[in-house]
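Aggregate trends can hide what the representation actually does to any particular protein. The sequence in question and its structure tokens are set out directly beneath this paragraph.
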Amino acid sequence: LALSMGQYNVAQRRLEKALAASPSDQTTMQLLGEVYAIQGNVKQSAFLLASTPSELQERLHMRTWWYEYIDAPQEAAWLNTAIEQR
């Protein structure tokens, strides 16, 4: 919910806590990777995204489109770069 409301710092803290509690949760990895990317932490994002299965990675292109749609081109660019580097 915090991610969808643009509360990226809150989303990051919650997702990091969730990942610490369940380190193999692929969806949490993907969401946290997205949060890292849209905050400009492309290297850490790419590392997490590389650990997620391909079917989850396919969603990332839709997320890039979403950031472009809501007029957040920098966030879209960072996410796209993380996707390419994974």
The helical segments are 8-21, 26-38, 42-50, 54-69, 73-85. The chain has a mean pLDDT of 94.
